[in-house]
Give the backbone structure.
Amino acid sequence: MTRNLKISVALVAVLLVGLLTVALVSDPSDEPAAAAETIAATTAGDSDDASAPAETGATVAPVLRPDSHRLSVARDGRVTLVEFLDFECESCGALYPLMEELREQYDGRVTFAIRYFPLPGHANAGTSALAVEAAARQGALEPMYRTMFETQAQWGEQQESKAPLFREFASRLGLDMRRFDRDVAAEATAARVLRDQQDGTALGIQGTPALYLNGRELTLESAEQLRADIDAALAESE
Amino acid sequence: MPSPSSDAPAQVLSARGSDAPGRGDAAAGFVVRASGWILAVCGAIGLIAAFTLTVERLRLAEDPDYIPTCSINPILSCGSVMTTPQAEAFGVPNPLLGIAGFAALTALAVAVLSGATLARGLWLTIQAGLTFAVGFVHWLFFQSVYRIDALCPYCITVWIVTIAAFLYCTLRNLASGAIPLPHRAKPLAATAIRYHGVLLTLWLAILTGLVAEAFWYYWRTLL
């Protein structure tokens, strides 16, 4: 064996042992609990992460990512309405019935996507987003999304953690609860929510709901206005 | 200018350092012989990866809801990487550059393997291309790990083969004298050639460490 080979093999061994040691030594138990707080603490004005895309000279964050959640999908994929929302935000709750109506009305013609934008002022904004994301990981995005808004009055605007209630929602939806608990606590779930939030921050979103129609921000005025905008986008794409 | 690969190591031999005599020429000979194979294999793998990425990009363009085959989870996801501005650094999708570059590299390396002698100017052209490629790949590494926060498996493949191809092309050109060196730098080059495997391992180990550190929170959830 040449010295070149010996040293190379030794390097690989050192790397593996090093990674394994750090993996075993670092304690996973203390961090997941902080995930929801991290999300809540990342205020919309926090420039730390938001400045990252700007620095690269790239355009601002994408309104829609390939892995963003879609509630309904258009057959031709031409018109997409993206809503940045906070499950505890009352205006989002007020918009929810209209969004459900629109989804039915434009079924198959418009893609409706949602992205998490938990606001710092809401105690359970991050917790609810984590619960919805954990449900989404079991293919139950839509029922959990519905449940959150339909029950908003019963848990919104309160200071204590509603995690047990959200867990109950998940249980009622028949989810695998061991997996749900693991996903709620997982850093990857938090990272997924945070990434949506960071994209929203980078886009300059100040509050929720924020709607983007084919990448263009909409000013929400009335249901008629929203329908007219969607119709215009549909006509444009013909 | 003729520079047959079989007698190429001559330049460094005459200037090897204080290390054990004989080892240097053997290592230089090995690097010169192996570089043809390494460039051919790296070129072919890179070509396949770039080609696959291009096909995936086209599918995604046809259907925005298409899930690329390499989107495995939130971190290992080429869908999220492919749609970023960084994926079109020069205005066209990066893999198109890869297809052209890797195809040329593979063709030239296969020619070398079958006994062709490339002019020094051509070796220097390959060197220039790979030097650009290795710089570009590190920019992409930085963007992917620290800005996009996702890894794309095909892209990682391209990073690795580009680094290996660059390293062995450089060492080969040093060993053959295609890259002229001042007298004092020759012992250093000879050492680099002797420890070619260590250089490659160290290089990739540093990048692996950076990836492990950057996505630590995620890898840990897999344990």
User: Anything to note?
Assistant: The two ends of chain A are 68 Å apart (CA to CA). Chain A touches chain B through 37 residues (CB under 8 Å).
